[in-house]
Amino acid sequence: MLQVILFGVVMTTILDPIGVDEARLKVERASDADVLSSLHRNGDCASAVRSIDLRFVGAKSGISELSTKSADLGFTVIQTVQMTDSETAIDLSVLSNAFPSTIDRLTVNALKIETYFNLHYDGWGTTVTKC
Predict the structure, then answer these.
(1) Alpha-carbon distances of 81 from 25, 47, 93, 96, rounded to whole Å
(2) What is the DSSP letter of 89?
(3) What is the extent of the structural domain holding 118?
(4) 56 with 119: CB under 8 angstroms?
(5) 98-110 residue pLDDT tens
(6) DSSP secondary structure letter of residue 75
(7) Does 130 reside within a domain?
(8) Of 1-5, 78-82, 83-87, which range is least confident?
């Protein structure tokens, strides 16, 4: 639980001044609601702390900078992948619960990371976790 709290403090401190596009946030929130609903239907325990993975795609320079700063942002780098269209992807992981409010903060911060590093946020995923 401490890591989840620390994650929120670190992310807020570093990314707080960056704004997000409200229309894009609305789309991401709708997608998040679908994923959370699917998790719930499949017996997920939202309070269970688990790995939540996020993907960002873009120029190698932005991916490299995000990789370097990922630990400061509360993430662990899972992998970087060279895409077929000369872009690079990075998969990051954070330990967190899957409460809607937590996922909403994660999504807002992911969109701020997208802006800060000039990348495209490609969503998050996790597995169903039982209590």
Answers:
(1) 26, 31, 15, 24
(2) E
(3) 2-125
(4) yes
(5) 999 999 999 999 9
(6) -
(7) no
(8) 1-5
Contact (CB, 8 A) for 73 and 10: yes
Give the chain's domain count.
Answer: 1
| pLDDT, tens digit (0-9, with 9 covering 90-100), for 9-41 | 455 566 778 899 999 999 999 999 999 999 999
For residue 102, which amino acid is it? Answer: T
Q: In what order do the strands lie in the sheet with 50-58?
A: 76-82, 88-96, 50-58, 120-125
Q: How far apart are CA 75 and CA 92, in angstroms?
A: 6
Q: CA-CA distance, 88 to 93, in Å (whole number)?
A: 17
Report if residue 131 sits inside a domain.
no
pTM of the shown model: 0.88
| CATH number of the domain residue 9 falls in | 3.30.70.970
Asked, for residue 25, whether it belongs to a domain, the answer is yes
Pairing of strands 50-58, 120-125: antiparallel
